[in-house]
Amino acid sequence: MESVKPELSPVPIWRCRNAECKVWVREELASSASPECPMCKGGMVRGIKHLPKLIKKHKSPRKSKDEASAW
Q1: Residue 23 forms part of a structural domain
Q2: SS3 of 3, please?
Q3: Which of 30, 57, 65, 67 is the most buried (most CB within 10 A)?
Q4: Could you tell me the pTM of the whole model?
Q5: What confidence tens digit (pLDDT) does each residue in 39-60 have?
């Protein structure tokens, strides 16, 4: 049985400057334009990682209070 490897694409990331800290985050999910490391509070630098594509799941629309209280 062959395992299928996901297709990788270059993704912009932020990684921690601290060599002992292994934290990184996708640029699109960063908290600001120049984030600080969420673990050690150090500075972060831009980089690139080859990662599987991120699958964005859409939330189903929520029912309004009127619809929910009808029961």
Answers
A1: yes
A2: coil
A3: 30
A4: 0.65
A5: 999 999 999 999 988 777 777 6
- Most distant CA pair in the chain: distance in Å? 57
Question: Phi-psi bin for 5: left (phi > 0), alpha (psi -120 to 50), beta?
Answer: beta
Selection from 13, 24, 22, 21 nearest residue 48 by Cα: 13
- Which domain, by its residues, includes 13? 1-54
The answer to whether position 35 is within a domain reads: yes
Is the residue at 64 inside a domain? no
Residue 33 lies in a domain: yes
DSSP letters, 9-61, are EEEEEEEES-TT---EEEGGG-SSSS-B-TTT--BEEEEEEEEEPPPPPPPPP
Token digits of residue 59: 């939330």
| Structural domains in the chain (count) | 1
Q: How far apart are CA 51 and CA 10, in angstroms?
A: 6
